[in-house]
Amino acid sequence: MSRPVILGILNVTPDSFSDGGRWVDPAAATAHALELVRQGADVIDIGGESTRPGAERVPAEQELARVLPIVRELAGSGIRLSIDTMNASTAGACAEAGAEFINDVSGGLADPDMYAVVAGSGVRYIAMHWREHSATMQAAPLYTEVVSEVRAELGERIAGAIAAGIEPARLIVDPGLGFSKTADHNWQLLAGLPELVGLGFPVLVGASRKGFLADFAAGGTAPAERDDATATISALSAQAGAWGVRVHNVAATRRALAVWDRWDEARA
Ligand code: PMM
């Protein structure tokens, strides 16, 4: 497949910035995941703890109680799953229940047991660039040269993961747009995607509906108004060599990637 993998977002949280509270009921969550797959999602990324700026932490047991029934149900239907968690205990239980990816926004910094659990489970690991927890992460994001610093810090996460026994072929990296970053930092990281691709690992891009896209909203101020801008970024990320995109509106990104794919095919 030449186009990037599409991870469809399913937040089973009461407080995520764009879809908080909508999919808390397991039946509604499962139905939404099936709809995202119908629209073209390759993988469903399930999160049980909000990481929006200012969010407080959720106990790991509560996070697991939110996601595990949905993981079991969807894995039973043969759907490929990613679990958005910073907790090794949640990662381990979900891997056992059939998840294929662990998506750790802290890149292993939040839980010292994460790398060992992933190493032992055989799942793929998405290491996102992160500096601190959501409660304080937007206080004063500081970089001299954001692309080279994010690249170097992701390199450190990769080295730590490999040292803990995770095979390199199982690793994916993510620049962590909006996590301890200003809008300018996000744009510089998008423009610098080829440099991150140059690390030699698949790169995932998570721009969907984030605040830095508010200037390009279709109409009002609701996060969903940023879906056109998100789909545009999906196509540009494909062009820059991204492995995958993590989005709320799968249908819009799927259409944008189909256009990109046709364009790319004509070049071959
Ligand atoms: N962003 C959010 C949550 N999880 N995971 C990865 N790998 N990359 C991201 O950019 C990312 C993430 C925050 O957004 P949400 O509230 O829409 O889930």
UniProtKB/TrEMBL annotation:
Gene3D superfamilies found in the cross-reference section: Dihydropteroate synthase-like (3.20.20.20)
UniProt-listed Pfam families: Pterin_bind
Domain Pterin-binding positions: 4-258
Cofactor annotation: Mg(2+)
Top-level taxonomic group: Bacteria
EC number(s) per entry: 2.5.1.15
Keywords: Folate biosynthesis, Magnesium, Metal-binding, Transferase
Catalytic reactions of this protein: (7,8-dihydropterin-6-yl)methyl diphosphate + 4-aminobenzoate = 7,8-dihydropteroate + diphosphate
Keyword Magnesium among UniProt keywords: yes
Top EC class for this record: transferase
InterPro entries: DHP_synth-like, DHP_synth_dom, Dihydropteroate_synth-like_sf, Pterin-binding_dom
Pathway the protein contributes to: Cofactor biosynthesis; tetrahydrofolate biosynthesis; 7,8-dihydrofolate from 2-amino-4-hydroxy-6-hydroxymethyl-7,8-dihydropteridine diphosphate and 4-aminobenzoate: step 1/2
GO biological process: folic acid biosynthetic process; tetrahydrofolate biosynthetic process
Family matches, as PROSITE patterns: DHPS_1, DHPS_2, PTERIN_BINDING
Keyword Magnesium: yes
GO-annotated cellular components: cytosol
A molecular-function term among this protein's GO annotations: dihydropteroate synthase activity
Function of the molecule: Catalyzes the condensation of para-aminobenzoate (pABA) with 6-hydroxymethyl-7,8-dihydropterin diphosphate (DHPt-PP) to form 7,8-dihydropteroate (H2Pte), the immediate precursor of folate derivatives.
Family: Belongs to the DHPS family.
Protein name, UniProt field: Dihydropteroate synthase
Organism: Glaciihabitans tibetensis
